[in-house]
Amino acid sequence: MVPVMVPVMAPQKQMTGMLGHPVAENPIDRMFDAVYAHHGLHWQFWKNDIANEADLARAVAALRPLGYRGMCITVPWKVAVIPLLDAVDDDVRAIGAANYTTIEDGRVIGHNNDGKGVVKAIEKVAPLRGKHVVMLGAGGAGRAMAVELAWAGAAHITLVTRREQQGLEVSERVRQAAGVPCEWKQWSSPIQLPKGTSLLMNATHLGCAPECEQVPVDWNSVDPSCVAVDVITNPRQTPFLQAARMRGCPTVDGVEMLVQLAMQIFERWTGVRAEEAVFQHAVSSALGEAGQAKHA
């Protein structure tokens, strides 16, 4: 009798991903896929470029029937996504933006750990308590970071934005959420920092690959002891951080923030304890840094 060969079916991949615009230069998919592979998880991460709000609504509605386990939300959709979700957590309610979702019992639930990632990254370099912060930009990520920096002990926050309504709204949200003084200043070029600024954060897209524009800061107004922080993940060393280093400032790059927040999201999605060394190696490989010394 000829034995019957029964095909072995591979387990269905568990899907996760990102919704944003643009997303091409973000290394997050290669990082997550490498970490999934390291842990032997049959999971995959898909980046999705969503160009308008109508497509965003379609994409969010499709998460459940397509079987996604979770989805990161990046610019410019961190605020616009909220009405499309079935529920949000307390952080999203306080901050007014969501940066990732979980799908639980058929419900798409919004969360925000943007600020938690940046706090962990900054506190590897310097304590936040008592810092006088100037933040350039106050979009979906910026508003989360401003609130979390206030919760972490920042003494005063100044938001510098082009849009007055956005700056005033986020300033008021920070004051209500944390009781920390927060003011808005109009974006002007070059940007002059108030005296006493001890932490300067670029929360804009300026400096992102492939354009890699310079942020118009008057570096003569920046004290060399001021910590410079950039949210951009690619390139790791942006023109903003390069200029800060030339000024003598301690720096925190966006890749470090990405690692810290991605570890939290990974644990929430998979239930597996994240290993920082695995994430650091995965993102360095994704950025073509394998074998190079990690930037301080």
Shape label:
globular
Strand content: 15-25%
- Output the helix-strand order: EHEHEEHEEHEHEHEEEHEHH
Strand order of the largest sheet: 2-1-3-5-6-4
Report the end-to-end length measured between terminal Cα atoms.
67 Å
Report the CATH topology name of the largest domain: Rossmann fold
- Which structural class is indicated by helix and strand composition? alpha/beta
Architecture (CATH level 2) name of the largest domain? 3-Layer(aba) Sandwich
Largest sheet: 6 strands, mixed
Low confidence ranges: 291-296
What's the tally of helices? 9
List the SSEs and their pairings.
Elements: E1 14-20, H1 28-38, E2 43-49, H2 53-66, E3 68-73, E4 87-88, H3 90-95, E5 100-104, E6 107-111, H4 114-123, E7 132-136, H5 140-151, E8 156-161, H6 164-178, E9 182-186, E10 199-202, E11 227-230, H7 239-247, E12 251-252, H8 254-270, H9 276-286
Parallel strand pairs: 1-2, 1-3, 4-6, 7-8, 7-10, 8-9, 10-11, 11-12
Antiparallel strand pairs: 3-5, 5-6
Helix pairs in contact: 1-9, 4-5, 4-8, 5-6, 8-9
Fold and architecture overview:
- This protein has 296 residues and is an alpha/beta fold.
- The chain folds into two domains: 14-112 and 256-286, Rossmann fold (3-Layer(aba) Sandwich); 115-255, Rossmann fold.
- It has helices at 28-38, 53-66, 90-95, 114-123, 140-151, 164-178, 239-247, 254-270, 276-286, and strands spanning 14-20, 43-49, 68-73, 87-88, 100-104, 107-111, 132-136, 156-161, 182-186, 199-202, 227-230, 251-252.
- The strands form two sheets. A six-stranded mixed β-sheet has the order 2-1-3-5-6-4, sandwiched between helices. The chain has a six-stranded parallel β-sheet with strand order 9-8-7-10-11-12, with helices on both faces.
- Helix 1 (28-38) links the parallel strand 1 and strand 2 (43-49).
- Helix 1 (28-38) crosses helix 9, helix 4 (114-123) packs across helix 5 and helix 8 (254-270) crosses helix 9.
- The longest helix has 17 residues, at 254-270.
